[in-house]
């Protein structure tokens, strides 16, 4: 019996997720500062 | 897939980070490990670019000399170009280098923190009006020009989509939707990438020559440079503020990708040369670049005061680091030898089209600057 393929997560969505995770880390002071 | 490195990299960039249907945990882990060498290479080149900029500035300061300030953006691109056009990019690094587009999108989302929603509404609103005009002009002109040069009709469609909307992503989205040949899409991608590389040099020169303001220049770069990575770099080469505005204007253009590709898909399906489009709303949602929503979300959070000032600075700096990796990738994936193999006519159509679009959009931006004081 064929198995339904899992939904793919697009690179765009990954980029948003990763950016939001970093924003959360900064907001909750888990990442204190980002020098440039 | 084409044997052309640059095109292959550009295509890989879109498919690579998708952890797909049949991936097992060990397969996903293996793919993540494969990314490490290339990502490290991006980081090393980007950091080297930053180090060179700072070293030149420090040398000038300590020796009381006025040296031209060449931004890290250009150094990172030049180092990447030097590698890809001399020794070439070893296979080991390719998967990681192909993530440059991922870093670009993450950087754009984070950049949302540097905009308040009011700015986005105002500048984005003006940009959107200009984008509609640019789309109409670019699509009709490229279609006419491709016809004059007797290029295959689907190649003309791909070139028109690439030069009017958002470069490589738009071409790849359109290729699937209109059932175009891979060869045609490789031609179109190569033309857009080659012209993007040229615009990196020319745009800042023209901008400085015309004494354009940061905002006006940023809108122009966002409207006229096709690929998002090159548009971001062309903006950042002018100034930090221009880079921000270029990203915003380019994002407005990217938002149109679904509509333009849908239009072409319906056109080619009506000619019986492509599969029909089912649910149009689903089609539009699938083609819509989701990172734009992330950009708006972060901006909304910043506008609502969720982030304190040091946090906004940290988010802005993080966005710069993400762009740094992108700029290194732009240089690394551009191989002039490979691009030159793609044939003269598609490149010529692309080049003439780009010059005309750049001049038209420059006129539009000057007009908008007079009316709305960008």
What does this structure look like?
Chain A has 36 residues and is mostly helical. The longest helix of chain A has 17 residues, at 11-27. Helices cover 47% and strands 0% of the residues of chain A. Chain B is mostly helical and 374 residues long. Chain B has one domain (100-372). In chain B, helix 5 packs parallel to helix 15. Residues 1-8 and 10-21 of chain B have low confidence and may be disordered.
Defining traits:
heterodimer, A: mainly alpha, 1 helix, 47% helix, 0% strand, B: 374 residues, mainly alpha, 78% helix, globular
Q: Beta-sheet strand percentage of chain B?
A: under 5%
Instruction: Give the integer mean of the pLDDT values of chain A.
Output: 82
Rounded mean pLDDT score of chain B:
84
Shape of chain A: elongated
Percent strand of chain A: under 5%
* Main interface: chain pair and counts: A-B, 23 and 36 residues
First-residue to last-residue Cα separation of chain B: 43 Å
Kindly provide the radius of gyration of chain A, computed on alpha-carbon positions and rounded to a whole number of angstroms: 16 Å
Unreliable stretches of chain A:
none
Helix proportion range of chain B: over 70%
**Cα-to-Cα separation, first versus last residue of chain A:** 54 Å
Tally of DSSP β-strands of chain B = 0
Count of DSSP-assigned helices of chain A:
1
Evaluate the radius of gyration of chain B.
Answer: 20 Å
Spans of chain B of 5+ residues with little confidence (pLDDT < 50)?
1-8, 10-21
- List SSEs of chain B in N-to-C order: HHHHHHHHHHHHHHHHHH
């Amino acid at each position: 019996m064929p198995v339904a393929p899992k939904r793919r997560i697009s690179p765009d969505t990954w980029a948003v997720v990763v950016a939001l995770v970093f924003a959360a880390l900064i907001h909750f002071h888990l990442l204190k500062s980002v020098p440039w | 897939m084409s044997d052309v490195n640059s095109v292959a990299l550009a295509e890989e960039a879109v498919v690579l980070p998708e952890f797909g249907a049949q991936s097992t945990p060990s397969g996903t882990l293996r793919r993540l490990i494969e990314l490490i060498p290339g990502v490290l290479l991006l980081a090393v080149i980007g950091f080297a670019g930053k180090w060179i900029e700072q070293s030149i500035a420090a040398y000038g300061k300590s020796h009381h000399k006025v040296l031209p300030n060449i931004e890290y953006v250009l150094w990172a691109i030049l180092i990447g170009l030097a590698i890809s056009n001399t020794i070439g990019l070893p296979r080991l690094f390719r998967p990681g280098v192909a993530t440059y587009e991922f870093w670009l999108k993450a950087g754009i989302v984070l950049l949302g923190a540097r905009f308040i929603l009011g700015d986005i509404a105002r500048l984005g609103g003006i940009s959107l009006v200009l984008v509609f005009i640019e789309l109409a002009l670019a699509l009709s002109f490229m279609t006419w020009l491709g016809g004059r040069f007797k290029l295959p009709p689907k190649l003309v469609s791909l070139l028109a989509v690439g030069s009017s909307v958002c470069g490589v992503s738009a071409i790849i989205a359109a290729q699937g939707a209109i059932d175009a040949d891979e060869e045609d899409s490789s031609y179109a991608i190569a033309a857009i990438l080659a012209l993007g590389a040229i615009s990196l040099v020319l745009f800042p020169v023209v901008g400085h020559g015309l004494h354009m303001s940061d905002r006006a220049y940023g809108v122009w770069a966002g409207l006229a440079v096709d690929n998002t990575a090159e548009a971001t770099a062309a903006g950042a080469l002018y100034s930090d503020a221009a880079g921000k505005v270029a990203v915003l204007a380019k994002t407005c253009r990217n938002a149109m990708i679904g509509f333009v590709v849908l239009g072409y898909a319906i056109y080619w399906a009506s000619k019986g040369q492509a599969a029909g489009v089912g649910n149009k709303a689903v089609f539009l949602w699938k083609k819509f670049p989701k990172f734009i929503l992330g950009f708006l979300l972060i901006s909304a959070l910043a506008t609502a005061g969720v982030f304190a000032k040091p946090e906004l600075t940290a988010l802005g700096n993080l966005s710069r680091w993400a762009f740094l990796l992108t700029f290194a990738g732009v240089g690394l994936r551009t191989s002039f030898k490979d691009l030159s193999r793609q044939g003269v006519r598609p490149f010529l159509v692309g080049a003439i089209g780009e010059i005309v679009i750049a001049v038209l959009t420059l006129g539009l931006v000057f007009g908008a600057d007079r009316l709305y004081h960008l």
